[in-house]
Design a protein that fits this description.
The chain is built from four helices and no strands. The protein has two domains: about 50 residues; about 35 residues, no CATH class. The radius of gyration is 24 Å and the shape is elongated. By secondary structure, the protein is an all-alpha fold.
């Protein structure tokens, strides 16, 4: 297999953190990047995921909703059927 060199710019902190994680996994940056390139080729797409950690705004919304529920401003339905009865009666 012919190897070629790819140069790209990245933040030094990002590279250092990625290298640390990969080292703990027993992998190199080269292995991880090659795996990523192979996946792009095979799937013909790149998937970017969003962490499932709520931001400050969403956390405030949850807190406000909880206060409203506890304050009796909203009714909670235990089943889909109960909700339908309330909506259609």
């Amino acid at each position: 297999m012919n190897n070629t060199v790819i140069n790209f710019n990245t933040n030094s902190k990002l590279k250092k953190e990625a290298k640390k994680v990969l080292d703990e996994m027993g992998l190199t940056l080269s292995v991880a990047l090659n795996a990523s390139l192979r996946r792009i080729i095979a799937e013909k797409r790149i998937e970017f995921t969003v962490p499932e950690i709520p931001n400050a705004r969403l956390k405030r919304s949850f807190k406000n909703a909880d206060k409203m529920i506890k304050g009796g401003k909203y009714k909670i339905y235990k089943t889909h059927e109960d909700l339908e009865k309330a909506l259609f009666s």
